[in-house]
Amino acid sequence: MELVAGCYEQVLFGFSVHPEPKADGDHEKWTPVADFTHHAHTASLSALAVNSRFVVTGSKDETIHIYDMKKKIDHGALVHHNGTITCLEFHGNRHLISGAEDGLICVWDAKKWECLKSIKAHKGHVTFLSIHPSGKLALSVGTDKTLRTWNLVEGRSAFIKNIKQNAHIVQWSPRGEKYIVVILNKIDVYQLDTASVSGTITNESRISSVTFLSESVLAVAGDEEVVRFFDTDSLTCLCEFKAHENRVKDIFSFEIPENHVIVTASSDGFIKMWKLKQDKKVPPSLLCEVNTNARLTCLGVWLDKVTDRKESLPPAAELFPVSKEQSKSNKKDSGHVVQEEEKQSKPNTKKCGLTGVSNKPTKGSSQVLTKKRKTVEMLGKKKRKKNKI
Fold it and tell me: Which end of the chain is more exposed for a tag (fewer CB within 10 A), N or C?
């Protein structure tokens, strides 16, 4: 498995993690080894998503970078948004959905890396989005104080709910029977069947990240050193533990055979992996930690050779259907990936540290701005005219 984390210093870190079985067969201590640092963005990283092949990162530089984790190369960049990329989420291995401060939600083909659909989702910024486990619905929140439900099969807005304040997180539960909306330090728990709030959880500080550990248990990280587990049915705090020396910026959970793990990243520069107990009232035990010496902002875990659980969900044709005319217009748009040659320089494999050097955009790189692209086209036309003469 590979720990990946982004930071304010524009770098993506990668650490391969090797479980060390003890005599009793239990994995008590794991070893993270620095694998790569990659400096592709020109501003701080703001979002990260992982599927079984790729890691994608969003940044304040308005681009989304794609990393092929099998080959350990930069696969290219997606340019469509005009604003900080605020959220990224894969749906299986077929689709990536992105949201940004321009108010757009974009659906990308994660095979051809084309923009299938671009929707003006919110009047203000899109602050967060979450895809239902079925792949048929999505939720988004924005700075226009609305919670919006999207019908992904038909590619249209299904429902708009006005909320009193700007929400900054929305998240479906694993089975999709409920969802939570986070506003500052409060978590409103909604039931899918009624679409109404069944209860509210209050954290002691502003919430920075959440992840469901089960259908009813939610892990909550905030602008403090502590992580708390809440029961979304009884609305009670099951346990809390000090995870870091500074505020926890992101939290992620995953399951592998015999282990349910959560990962935390903090402004103190540390990434830590914790083994969850069966009884969520008992704090988890530390498996490993690594110091990046950077101000971390987002994280994920890439699991090699793992079958994606969402492969059986709606195929590409069923998720945001696109007409032929729309497909052509999207290809003309700047919103498609520029595939980079595999022989291009690989991510810096030096040990942990901010030593990565930004890869210069290759010919036709999507990091080249629209004005520059037009200039290049004009120069090309002039050269062709000279050749004719």
Answer: C
